[in-house]
Design a protein that fits this description.
The chain has 2 domains: 170 residues, 2-enoyl-CoA Hydratase, Chain A, domain 1, CATH 3.90.226; 38 residues. It has 249 residues and is of the alpha/beta class. Helix content is 41%, strand content 16%.
Length: 249
């Protein structure tokens, strides 16, 4: 199993379980996360969900060798990126959340992170761009200039800094992010579920009002990037473990 599912009272805990590949998304992991989130969404006894990774990190994003599979019917990319949810989703991050892994975190509602965790969007270092929402969700979740710095440099953002700028809700000691995220989920579950649901839906509808235009802009940027020679060079350099030789073409 590449995705583990556990119920703790009214909280569903979902674990990405592909540690030998740094929880990078292939088709099986995408399908597994989609199924788990569908189960949580459809279970009336689940009122909140926690998502975390097994091993030393949350997720390294797309498996560049295998690909992440197609969009799922209910969740979109990775089974979560375009999902319309009615239950709070909390990311519990240890280690790293890079590339698509960071975009999965951006698709969550709340973030609990270990002090040693790092968030990053290194796509520009590979000759590609972030195509799963980060081009517009970073600037919603973080100050604009911090979002630009992440997208343009590819440098990771330490959890302590992410907490200071308001992206991370709770800082945890190393190894305790899941525990604190689950406690946060149980705090939410002490409240009236319909009130929580409608509050979440209202906030998300307002926050995502311009998503159609944002996705169209992302697609245009992706098509322009993919037509360049630098994209092929960036991916080849990554797989061959060497520095890319950019041409700007």
């Amino acid at each position: 199993m590449t995705v583990d599912y556990e119920k703790l009272d009214r909280v569903a805990v979902i674990r990405l379980n592909r540690p030998e590949k740094r929880n990078a998304f292939d088709a099986a992991l995408t399908a597994g996360l989609d199924r788990a989130l569908n189960e949580a969404e459809d279970d009336p006894e689940v009122w909140a969900v926690v998502l975390t990774g097994v091993g030393q990190g949350f997720s390294a994003g797309t498996d560049l060798a295998a690909g992440s599979g197609g969009q799922t019917e209910r969740g979109g990319e990775y089974g979560v990126i375009r999902r319309h949810r009615t239950k709070p989703l909390i990311a519990a991050v240890e280690g790293f959340a890079f590339g698509g892994g960071m975009e999965v975190v951006l698709a969550c509602d709340l973030v609990v992170a270990a002090r040693t965790a790092k968030f990053g969007l290194p796509e520009v270092r590979r000759g590609v761009i972030a195509t799963c929402g980060a081009l517009f969700r970073t600037q919603r979740a973080l100050p604009l200039n911090i979002a630009k710095e992440m997208l343009l440099t590819g440098d990771p953002l330490p959890a302590e800094r992410a907490y200071q700028v308001g992206f991370v809700n709770t800082l945890a000691e190393e190894g305790t992010a899941l525990k604190l995220a689950t406690e946060l989920a149980h705090r939410i579950c002490r409240n009236a579920p319909i009130s929580v649901r409608e509050s979440l839906i209202a906030v998300e509808r307002t926050n995502a009002a311009n998503d159609a235009a944002a996705w169209a802009t992302t697609e245009q940027a992706m098509l322009t990037t993919l037509a360049s020679a630098d994209t092929s060079e960036g991916i080849a350099a990554f797989l061959e473990r060497r520095e890319p030789r950019w041409t700007g073409r």
